[in-house]
Design brief:
CATH architecture of the largest domain: Sandwich
Structural class: alpha+beta
Order of helices and strands: HEEEHEEEEEEEEE
Number of helices: 2
Radius of gyration: 38 Å
Strand content: 25-35%
Number of domains: 2
CATH topology of the largest domain: Immunoglobulin-like
Helix content: 10-25%
Shape: rod-shaped
Largest sheet: 6 strands, mixed
């Protein structure tokens, strides 16, 4: 072996020895209380826990430690799953009726249709709201029928809800107007 090759072999031995001792110190810091360094007859560094006449005690600094996370693994996995679910929907909007539509006369039923992209996932539901109040049950369809709506303006929105009742996505609100005949507006019979 050439002199550079001997140095490489010696360096590998030293690094291996250091790695083993570092591992042992990390794995069980109370087993070894002192580490000693000496130089062998061929010039290699030797680390041991037994002092020899030519050895020097090595001062080992405590290793930095990090605290364990406070959240458990299941909570983190559920949070990740919830984030994926929330991002799974791109959009929801009411497509019928259009914004600012006015309904006149005795409209007994009003059809509301929403568009959801992508389609509704298993375990999720949609619900229609008028003026911030739920006016439908949770359902799997994006088509709703409203009956006997009062006169005036109504702000409608549709929400996607998960099994726990968390709102995953809300549509932009639209406003519609209901005009109905009033008892005060009777035709004049005297004409």
């Amino acid at each position: 072996m050439t002199k550079p090759q001997k140095k490489n072999v010696a360096l590998i031995k030293v690094l291996t020895t250091l790695a083993v001792y570092a591992h042992l110190l990390i794995a069980s810091p109370t087993v070894f209380s002192d580490v000693y360094q000496s130089v062998g007859p061929d010039g290699t560094l030797i680390f041991t826990d037994v002092p020899s006449p030519n050895s020097v005690k090595v001062q080992i600094k405590p290793l930095p430690t990090l605290p364990f996370p406070t959240k458990d693994k299941n909570t983190k996995q559920q949070a990740t799953k919830d984030n994926i679910t929330k991002k799974a929907y791109e959009s929801i909007q009411i497509i019928s009726p259009a914004q600012d539509t006015t309904f006149r006369g005795n409209t007994e039923q009003l059809q509301i249709v929403a568009s959801l992209s992508p389609r509704l996932q298993q375990g999720h539901s949609v619900q229609l709201f008028s003026n911030g109040t739920a006016v439908s049950e949770l359902q799997n369809s994006t088509s709703f029928t409203l009956k006997d709506m009062h006169r005036g303006s109504h702000t409608l929105s549709v929400k996607v809800v998960d099994t726990k009742g968390h709102v995953l996505l809300s549509s932009p609100p639209i406003t519609i107007y209901m005009h109905r005949p009033s008892v005060l507006q009777r035709p004049n019979k005297n004409k």
